[in-house]
Write a structure and sequence with these properties.
By secondary structure, this protein is of the alpha/beta class. It contains 12 helices and 15 strands. The chain has a domain at 1-111 and 315-376: Rossmann fold (3-Layer(aba) Sandwich), CATH 3.40.50.300. The strands form 3 sheets. It has a 6-stranded antiparallel sheet, with helices on one face.
């Protein structure tokens, strides 16, 4: 998968912009707050239909403008045009080859892996952040997962409404039975997909991590379904669809009284998590920041191989000033991998962070105050 061209209109600090990309290495260099990350954000929008940093769409629209257009020429098996229109009022629009497309079908046409200095949230942040990571990664490689996720949250919303009525309005608890069945059915399918993804990504992450750490440490990704949050999960534990459905059904029954009292759902994949574990120890609690950054680097690089195995082609990798956060060993390992035939878009404040072998064959752009100029 490749992005060939990016066009922006009224996006962030770009009134208009057109950039043609190299199929391999693209470096955007410049001081901070000049617009480098805005370019990565626009590419990410073409893949995910959402920003990795803006809370509201209006934040991405140029001041005093009513809308913004992000357009890209991408090549998968053929070359296509992806467009996203952001509006100050009304929902954003998604287009594939000039035809409107729902968000759930837009995601996965073009795939990316994003690596930023803020990625420590994967280890140190909340379970909600890790769940979003799971959901968006699986959505890129599975056309049905996004629809399944939306269906699940519709059922969850309705079930919570009924639980509130039972708790505070003395509604008959029997009205919940049909929604319990749907919660278990949809939720079990979601959790099976998550367990499978974590297992595959975990194997790849372990291999990457062994290379970075010279075999001194073993990294494991452990899926922690909501019903196992308080359990000691043994190494290599796997969850299949049958065990997930059985444990989910048991949890619905055992938490019923507590849910009636609280008025909301205490069971389901909306309470899942996963862990980064080094040599059997939870990295969130006991890992150093160096260990945490190494684990995240291994995980991000493993995502490339995971997506390749699931879709047949590598995604584009987006690196937002990450060399400033890595020590020399990790930086060397990352940049050595970039010489592979994976399209890479990098932002940096210091072009000297990169070895001449990389920059000599790269397409390099200078970014200043919303202006992008290719180095000749």
């Amino acid at each position: 998968m490749l992005i060939r061209e990016l066009r922006l209109l009224n996006f962030r600090n770009y009134k208009t912009l057109s950039v043609q990309f190299d199929p391999q290495i693209n470096i955007f260099a410049g001081y901070n707050a000049q617009g480098k990350t805005n370019i990565l954000e626009a590419i990410y929008l073409l893949a995910m239909g959402r920003s990795f940093r803006a809370v509201k769409d209006s934040e991405m629209i140029t001041h005093d403008q009513s809308y913004s257009l992000v357009s890209g020429q991408v090549t998968t098996e053929a070359t296509h045009t992806l467009e996203l229109v952001l509006k100050r009022s009304g929902p954003k629009q998604f287009r594939f080859n000039k035809k409107d497309l729902p968000h759930k079908e837009f995601v996965g046409v073009f795939n990316v892996v994003l690596f930023t200095p803020d990625d420590l949230y994967l280890v140190k942040g909340s379970p909600g952040g890790r769940r979003r990571f799971l959901d968006w990664e699986i959505s890129q490689v599975s056309t049905g997962y996004r629809s399944l996720l939306l269906d699940y949250y519709k059922v969850l919303q309705h079930r919570n409404s009924l639980l509130k009525s039972i708790a505070f309005e003395n509604q008959d608890p029997k009205i919940l039975e049909v929604w319990d069945q749907q919660l278990v059915e949809l939720g079990s399918r979601l959790m099976t997909a998550r367990a499978d993804m974590i297992h595959k990504l975990g194997l790849l992450s372990r291999l990457m991590h062994r290379q970075i750490s010279d075999g001194r440490e073993d990294l494991e990704l452990r899926y922690v379904p909501f019903f196992a949050a308080d359990e000691r999960i043994s190494d290599g534990h796997k969850y299949d669809s049958q065990s997930i459905r059985s444990r989910f059904t048991e949890a619905v029954a055992s938490f019923r009284t507590a849910e009636f009292k609280r008025g909301y759902s205490l069971v389901g994949p909306h309470r899942d998590d996963f862990q980064f574990v080094i040599n059997g120890v939870d990295l969130k609690t006991f890992g150093s920041q160096g260990q945490q950054r190494t684990a995240i680097l291994a995980c991000r690089l493993a995502e490339l191989e995971y997506m390749k195995s699931e879709t047949g082609s590598y995604p584009t990798i987006l690196l937002d000033d990450v060399t400033s956060e890595l020590d020399q060993q990790r930086k060397h390992f990352l940049l050595r991998l970039l010489t592979k035939k994976i399209q890479t878009v990098i932002t940096t404040t210091n072009i000297s962070d990169f070895e001449p072998d990389l920059t000599n064959g790269a397409k390099v752009f200078h970014v200043s105050a919303g202006k992008v100029q290719e180095r000749r």
